[in-house]
Design a protein that fits this description.
Blueprint lengths: L11 H6 L6 H15 L8 H22 L9 H25 L6 H22 L9 H17 L25 E3 L3 H9 L5 E4 L7 H4 L3 H8 L3 E6 L9 E6 H10 L6 E6 L1 H4 L29 E7 L4 E5 L4 E8 L2 E6 L39 E6 L4 E4 L4 E6 L3 E8 L1
Parallel strand pairs: 1-2
Antiparallel strand pairs: 2-11, 3-4, 3-5, 5-6, 6-13, 7-12, 8-11, 8-13, 9-10, 9-12
Helix pairs in contact: 2-3, 2-4, 3-4, 4-5, 5-6
Length: 418
């Protein structure tokens, strides 16, 4: 019986060229598999051949995984990250062929197909998270993942999720003591002269009211439709400075239901993740603010592609401990409320930063519950507190210390640039 047309299609000539960028120890195993898949012989491939090919690719992934997890991430040779992406793409194609070969024997084809497709999406997300965009087909993995996620949503039904419970009274606790640092839709000149050059924190209002994200993302069913089958990294625990902190890769739909919509004693936070590189269709719902074009370098203005965009999504109670970043930051609130406590770089000696290389940008002091006996100089620290509301941006200058608490379920986007 003829097999159905494959869902996963790739430009084989370009994919074959990727073999030039990977280590020889892996290339030797992939060449015969790719040659088999790119020719008509794949229609005649036996179950045994497909299964043995999957086993061989999994061995290549295991070997690549060892390299990716040895030493510091920044020191991983780029060819092994290319290798991981390529192996994941090949495995995804093999898994689909394996399903097609055995489809007639399954009593519940649709349920089995859903399981297989979600397994493939999981594999591809690991390739996106751990690999690197392939030089000749940089969007290959994101394109495949989007297509399969859309198919799962359209053909297997979407989960009907409850709305996010955001019940926060805008009372006196949310009124800032710095009204002069609030700017309603500042002009580029005003932003540059009164905010960017002096390097002072500021709340910007009415700058993102046209973003579709402000209305669409409040609906968990919309987020679930776009990203439900995808695998994302989340932080588990009160904050990254505590012993109970760890990281997990989880299904986005599971994260929504277990950590954001319902109360869970175990706090889960999708924090500082480049979600919009992984799921680019979400980029259509917002824009990079024009203010990010100003640069601290005299050489050039900043291009949108040079802005690091990160997602921060989680329930009430998530905490980013007091720390600083080396870049300019526009923290943009999509929905929910956050409290941000800031300290100027001149206060650094009063904040007791960790003396380890890994945490030297993080303070040991908790500004919400300070232990003055342990950190006596903190009494001298002069801080600023802002409450970030839906549709507002907070400019955080480079090297400014900030402690961030989600007061409700919250979704924020940070734009970092030099």
């Amino acid at each position: 019986m003829a097999r159905s047309a494959p869902m996963i299609t790739v430009p084989w000539d370009l994919l074959a060229k990727e073999l030039e960028h990977i280590p020889m120890e892996i290339k030797l195993h992939l060449i015969p598999i790719i040659n088999m898949l790119r020719t008509s012989d794949k229609q005649l491939a036996s179950e045994t051949l497909i299964n043995s090919s999957i086993t061989r690719v999994e061995a290549c992934l295991d070997r690549t995984w060892e390299v990716l997890n040895s030493g510091y991430w920044k020191d991983v040779p780029i060819e092994y990250r290319y290798c991981y992406s390529l192996c994941v793409a090949v495995k995804a194609i093999l898994l689909e062929f394996q399903y097609e070969i055995n489809a007639e024997s399954f009593s519940d084809k649709e349920e089995k197909k859903k399981t297989v497709l979600r397994n493939i999406i999981n594999q591809i997300d690991k390739g996106i998270l751990l690999g690197a965009p392939l030089p000749n087909v940089p969007n290959l993995l994101t394109t495949i993942a989007t297509k399969l996620n859309n198919y799962c949503t359209e053909n297997f039904g979407a989960t009907n999720l409850e709305e996010f419970l955001i019940n926060h009274q805008e009372n006196s606790d949310l009124i800032s003591n710095y009204p002069d640092r609030h700017f309603e839709r500042p002009s580029m000149q005003t932003f540059y002269n009164k905010i960017f050059v002096p390097k002072l924190p500021a709340i910007l209002t009415d700058c993102m009211s046209h973003w579709k994200a402000l209305t669409l993302w409040k609906n968990p069913n919309y987020l679930n439709k776009i990203a439900g089958s995808r695998t994302v990294p989340i932080e588990i625990g009160s904050s990254y400075t505590e012993e109970d902190w760890t990281q997990h890769l989880v299904n986005f739909s599971e994260f929504l239901q277990k950590h954001v919509i319902t109360n869970n004693s175990e706090v889960g936070y999708l924090a500082q993740h480049q979600l919009f590189e992984q799921i680019p269709e979400l980029k259509e719902d917002f824009e990079v603010p024009e203010y990010c074009c100003f640069s601290d370098s005299e050489e050039k203005d900043v291009e949108a592609s040079e802005v690091d965009i990160n997602a921060w999504f989680g329930p009430a109670g998530t905490v980013s401990p007091l720390h600083f970043d080396p870049k300019n930051n526009l923290l943009s609130q999509i929905f929910g409320y956050k409290r941000v406590i800031l300290y100027s770089p001149v206060e650094t000696d009063n904040l007791y930063s960790y003396d380890t290389k890994l945490l030297n940008n993080t303070a040991q002091v908790d500004p919400v519950r300070p232990d003055y006996d342990k950190w006596p100089n903190f009494r001298k620290a002069d801080g600023m507190t802002f409450h970030l509301k839906p549709g507002e941006m907070l400019y955080i200058p480079p090297k400014w210390w900030h402690h961030v608490t989600s007061l409700t379920p919250s979704f924020s986007i940070s734009f970092w640039w030099h």
